[in-house]
Specification:
Structural class: alpha+beta
Order of helices and strands: HHEEEEEEHEEHHHHEHHEEHHE
CATH architecture of the largest domain: 2-Layer Sandwich
Helix content: 40-55%
Shape: rod-shaped
CATH class of the largest domain: Alpha Beta
Number of domains: 4
Mean pLDDT: 76
Oligomer: single chain
Strand content: 15-25%
Low-confidence stretches: 13-26, 324-370
CATH superfamily of the largest domain: Band 7 domain
Largest sheet: 4 strands, antiparallel
CATH topology of the largest domain: Tetrahydropterin Synthase, Chain A
Number of helices: 11
Distance between the termini: 200 Å
Radius of gyration: 63 Å
Number of strands: 12
Amino acid sequence: MKSDSFRNKRNGFETMDGGMDGQGPKGKNPAGKIAGIVAAVVVLAVLALNSTYEIKEQEQAVLITLGQAQAVSEPGLHFKIPFIQQVRKVNTTIQGFAIGYNSENDEVDEDESLMITSDFNFIDVDFYVEYRYSDPVKALYASKAPLDILRNISQSCIRTVIGSYPVDDVLTTGKNEIQASIKEMILKRLEDQDIGIQLVNITIQDSEPPTVEVMEAFKAVETAKQGKETALNNANKYRNEQLPSAQARADGIIKDAEAQKTERINEATAQVSRFNSMYQEYIKNPAVTRQRMFYEAMEDVLPDLKVIIESPNGNTQTIYPLESFTGTQEDGEEEQPASSQSTMQGSPVQGSAQSNAQAPQDSTDEIAED
């Protein structure tokens, strides 16, 4: 009986007596069922967790299927084949690193910061490099350490550019130009390397001489340069203030000279016209004109001169100056006849000529001063 029951169980059947073998009831083991259920749940959970992945806004993913990489850039929840496909995520935000100092504690790294300029001066220059991953697949598989490559390229380009500028440009006015030259050189080198990293920007954080003594000397030089610039600016200011007034004075002198020139020319032209008119009169009557010119010259030379002509009959005639039209004469002089006065009033020169014509040739003219 016992052997039949064992055979039935082995064949998957139960005995007629409900599995009773004479020793009491015996059922299936419940612990084994629970363990199987737990194992199945764990397997399903592992499969579920390994079949999905999430990409954030600032990330890109690389999906690797049996060694073949594929970039996934759309953010959100994505599915993959568990244990067959693998996912590696890359941060695509702008990141950076320092060259010449430690960004965590601001300590100077002389091995990176100490450089030599084109005029053989030593100088400490600190830079900060900003970058981002432009191609996640190349960033992961084109090189083993892309950041180290970018750092080495940056240091090489920095030393090359700094070595081509004098120390004054590095310390003061040439920083923007130096940064632009370094950035252009790094971009060209990264394009040749093609490692999936893009340079965003590189800036000079600080530049100073390596020692305190040299730093003080540079400060003294900069102070002298600023004094020079101040003196030049003051000189230019004074020049700009003085030039307009000097130009105005020069213009005034030129205008006065031109006015005097015009006046002299006009005066000379008038004198020429006067001389020509006198010459025309002189041609008509040379004796009278010559006598009149003599009297006019004597008037200019001796303004107080009085000319008196005495005729043979004892009468006297004043030729110069003319007597008043009222007919009064000075003391000691005889009154002239009416006919003589009318002749003098008409033309003194003509009257004198007539008197000379009436007088004999050997008569003597008496010229006396008052």
